[in-house]
Amino acid sequence: MNRIFVRAGLVLGLILLAGCATNESAGPEKVEALAAKSETAEKAVSAPIRNGRHVGYYYPETRSVEVYRARSKRLGHANRTTRLAFVTGITKQQQERDYPPRFAIFAKGTKAEKLIIIGLDGQTFSSLYRARAALAQMTAMARLTPLFKQLGVQEYFTFFDLAKLLGFRDITVSDGQTWSHRIDFYEDKRP
């Protein structure tokens, strides 16, 4: 039981803004080289889009998909509990604010490997462009986490890279009414 609390604490520490110093010994040159090698792969999918069982319940049919080549690898200890603690931590932060949440974030799938983010206010996610802006803000928050600072990757990794670190397979964003878009993480099969 203690391990669960330790893992949950680790994940909550990932998302809480903290004033930790950058770990200069993390080797920024190495991180920069990895980032340069692992270019982002975004592309439209022309094949039929796979829609899971969440379509029609949480969001409308997915009409667009992109593939993101993450600069990060999945953390060895990332599992269902870690991912659920992550979304629970973000939800808790939202509930503690003086204003209503602008989006809902939750994990689905048997291993909680699907991250779903749905706009709640009719504005923040009123278009894919606004959703991307909200995701960019999440990148800014992720770059302030102790984990990114400890790894020395705060200038290179994005929110998508954080999601990949935690073991999410994809992210679906939607306004919850008219559109949804999925970001699949590219799986490099090389050793």
Based on the model shown, name its key terms.
single chain, 191 residues, alpha/beta, five-stranded mixed beta sheet, 6 helices, disordered N terminus
Topology:
Layout: H1 2-15, H2 28-37, E1 64-68, H3 80-95, E2 103-108, E3 114-119, H4 128-142, H5 146-151, H6 159-165, E4 170-174, E5 180-185
Parallel strand pairs: 1-5, 3-4
Antiparallel strand pairs: 2-3, 4-5
Helix pairs in contact: 1-3
Summarize the structure in words.
With 191 residues, this protein is an alpha/beta fold. The protein is 36% helix and 15% strand. It is built from six helices and five strands. Strand 4 and strand 5 form a beta hairpin. The longest helix has 16 residues. It is globular.
Shape: globular
Please report the total strand number as a whole number: 5
Instruction: Specify Rg, calculated over alpha carbons.
Output: 17 Å
The portion of residues assigned to helices is 25-40%
Could you list the spans in which at least 5 consecutive residues all have pLDDT below 50? Answer: 1-48
How many discrete structural domains? 1
Strand content: 5-15%
Rounded mean pLDDT is 76
Give the structural class: alpha/beta
Strand order within the widest beta sheet: 1-5-4-3-2
> Alpha-carbon distance between the termini?
34 Å
